[in-house]
User: Which sequence fits this backbone?
């Protein structure tokens, strides 16, 4: 049996940093995630003139409801889509000229529905090279507010960026959504806005965000549920038992729902008040599952799928093609490298039972490809990675933590 302490949630840390920066006083964030994405977010805030004090276990942010403290800034968002999509919205509420650039992969990832919506709200936003991609410049003069229509069928982060901006506008926002993926991430946004004093209303597919700003607070960050998926999958795959502390019934993150997928496949799952346990049973059934709501865990499932007794078919995950890499293709390619029979379509992947044999995994710089196939490695000797260090995006200490887990549950 292993009791695992997982680092803080990337999504919650990013939102907390935005909310703290926009709030009316000093906010303390307890147990934030320290990783490339969240350090990049904090550094972006610092570039915009916010004071972010960092100790290992807590970060303090001096909020500025009036927006960035500097008239000009050049912000490098690294590989983090939360940084690259949320910070331009924060900057728009201020006064100044703010340029945002990002890694080559983040430059390729889409952004247009968000930047179009910001322009519809009167924000002066220019893309420097390709329309709808970084680098971009916001010439900010505050945002009046009003109504906007948004297609968030490719990424819920567009909607989160606008929701977070809403209370910073003069009259509030009415955001009508025509399509939406990753719905639980929007629920995280709404719950966290509530913790910072803002209640968002709903009228059908319209989100009604009042003006008035955020209240500073002390905010404790949950462990990351997507990261936990590798540890839960390890238990299901090996017949071991893994308990993740700090993630239970009240958890904000939809990705904790991955344990329900494992339950359907034959694992035993216990969700307690403040912890979740997965126990492998030696059984791993095939399954057809929709992962539109929890698509960051698609590679986790793909990586253990060959060991199931029947085919594993994962549907409605088209947007995994526009993440840190094209994850459907990357999963299929790597499973084939291991000798596994796989088929993919535009928005699905099907993995057939097989006995993987060791090979080098092509990571495409994607942390989730590494962490997922590390789980396969528990049952497959000889798996290596062309870029194991890319786990730094969300979990710099992954390899050490996973080796410890392996010692405890496999021996
Ligand atoms: O808002 C967030 O924090 C996130 C939303 C999801 O993205 P999409 O909405 O683009 O699917 C998820 O994949 C990403 O890792 C984090
Ligand atoms: C898709 C991811 O990250 P982001 O979109 O925040 O860059 C992820 O962490 O799997």
Assistant:
């Amino acid at each position: 049996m292993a009791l695992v302490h997982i680092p803080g949630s990337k999504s919650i840390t990013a939102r907390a940093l935005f909310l703290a920066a926009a709030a009316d006083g000093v906010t303390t964030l307890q147990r934030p995630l320290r990783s490339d994405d969240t350090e990049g977010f904090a550094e972006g805030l610092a570039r915009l003139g916010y004071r972010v004090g960092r100790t290992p276990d807590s970060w303090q942010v001096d909020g500025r409801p009036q927006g960035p403290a500097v008239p000009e800034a050049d912000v490098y968002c690294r590989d983090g889509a939360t940084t690259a999509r949320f910070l331009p919205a924060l900057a728009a509420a201020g006064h100044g000229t703010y340029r945002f650039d990002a890694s080559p992969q983040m430059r390729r990832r889409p952004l247009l529905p968000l930047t179009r919506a910001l322009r519809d709200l009167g924000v002066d936003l220019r893309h420097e090279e390709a329309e709808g991609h970084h680098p971009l410049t916001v010439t900010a003069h505050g945002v009046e507010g009003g109504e906007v229509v948004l297609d968030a069928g490719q990424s819920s982060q567009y909607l989160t960026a606008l929701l977070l901006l809403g209370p910073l506008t003069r009259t509030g926002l009415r955001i009508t959504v025509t399509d939406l993926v990753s719905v639980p991430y929007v629920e995280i946004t709404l719950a966290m806005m509530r913790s910072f004093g803002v209640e968002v209303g709903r009228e059908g597919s319209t989100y009604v965000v009042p003006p008035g700003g955020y209240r500073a607070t002390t905010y404790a960050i949950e462990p990351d549920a997507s990261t936990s998926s590798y540890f839960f999958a390890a238990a299901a795959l090996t017949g071991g038992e893994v308990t993740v502390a700090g993630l239970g019934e009240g958890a904000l993150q939809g990705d904790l729902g991955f344990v329900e997928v494992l339950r359907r496949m034959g694992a035993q799952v216990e969700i307690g008040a403040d912890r979740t346990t997965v126990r492998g049973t030696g059984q791993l059934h095939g399954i057809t599952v929709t992962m539109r709501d929890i698509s960051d865990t698609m590679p986790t499932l793909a990586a253990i799928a060959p060991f199931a007794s029947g085919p594993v078919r994962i549907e409605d995950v088209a947007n995994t093609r526009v993440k840190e890499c094209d994850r459907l293709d990357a999963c299929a390619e790597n499973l084939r490298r291991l000798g596994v029979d796989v088929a993919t379509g535009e928005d699905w992947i099907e993995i057939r039972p097989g006995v993987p044999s060791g090979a080098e995994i092509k990571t495409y710089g994607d942390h989730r490809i590494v962490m997922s196939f590390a789980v396969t490695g528990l049952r497959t000797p000889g798996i290596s990675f062309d870029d194991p260090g890319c786990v730094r995006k969300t979990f710099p200490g992954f390899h050490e933590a996973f080796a410890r887990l392996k010692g405890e549950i496999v021996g």
About this structure: The first strand starts at residue 2 and ends at 4. The pocket of phosphoenolpyruvate (ligand 2) is lined by residues 80-82, 296, 323-324, 368, 394 (CB under 6 Å).
